[in-house]
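Regression check, zinc ion case 408:
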Amino acid sequence: MKIENVLNYVANNSAYYQILFDSNNIDISKIKTIEDLHQIPFTTKDDLARFNEMFLCVPKSKIIDYVTTSGTLSNPVSFYLTDNDLERLASNEEASFKLVGANSSDIFQMMVTLDKQFMAGLAYYLGIRKLKAGAVRQGPGSPANQIEAILKFNTTVLIAIPSFIVKLIEYAKTHNIDLNQTSVKIIICIGESIRGEDLNFNELGKRITSNWNVHLHSTYASTEMGAAFTECKAGKGGHLNPELLILEVVNDNCEIVKEGELGEVVVTTLGVEGMPLIRYRTGDLCNVYYSECSCGLTSPRLGPVIGRNQQLIKYKGTTIYPPSIFEVLTQSNIDLFQVNVYKNELGLDEVSIKLPSTIDDEKLIKSLKSALKAKLRVTPKLEFIDKKELIGLVFNPEKRKPIKIVFH
Ligand SMILES: [Zn+2]
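Current build output:
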């Protein structure tokens, strides 16, 4: 029923899908199950960027909010949301908050931005409101002000990028503030993985939980899906919200992968009015779990994003997922770096890690090199540059996230 509804809707309203169905002779009345969906070609990020407005299903007068995706690799893509789409975002976040055990008596401190055409911040805010909980819209950065707000308003839930929580912990330590004495009990993490492929906490997750007795929850979401995969208390992957998305996780041959296997996340959005997507390839590679969760939910779960399909590095005969490089650097207590991938004269990938010249210390370099070798089986080039220059490269004020990797 849900599949038929969304297919009928795009066939009637989206210029892009009308052409796609026509040119591929697709009879949508014959598509009733997830298996049947295979007849429809994937929609890619590139399609979305190139035919952006052809995906729009409503007149512009119905648009309430204009969003732009950050575009890690491709050009930024515009996304248009109607009033109903904002309501859908609110329901999504409300469901996520309930999954982490929050309720109307909680006070949420938002350590992410609400502006800059950013969808997630707005979605969180709408969800907090729908839950009838309290919101402290602190925004990103400034550990001192964050802690002041936590103490003043008795915040119970934080929404933050996990590496910022590490900064917050360091700040608290140097100022003799005991975070365990604060009212915070839950942290909802956005943008970075806190777990490894084995679903145990990675270095980032460990650094937080070893210092702060809180429940850490990972979320995985994107503007295009307009929904989040959120971890329940079991912490065994983020749960699909089956009301809002159809999930397919596919291998290189476009076949659905089995329990626990790695594949690319493909979603079909349900209930989206402005720009619904059918079989959208996110480019994100995750392990999928279909088995019942110990929390009792039977919805499929996704492990952390292991890599992006377009971001695989083929280096000296080995495939490297960028997050594994980040993990080694974090484990070596290096927080400031930028990985650069470029093609050499033979057309092969070369990897170079830019590091601040302040850490140009022989012992550390030696141990970093052996850690990289142990984890990746190859050693990328290390390049030491002026710290200020590196900060300028990593923290571009035009970008919402630190630029940890650049593909040239
Ligand atoms: Zn669960």
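Comparison notes: The pocket of zinc ion is lined by residues 232, 234, 239, 293, 295, 297 (CB under 6 Å). Residues 148 and 154 are 10 Å apart (CA to CA). No diff flagged against the previous build.
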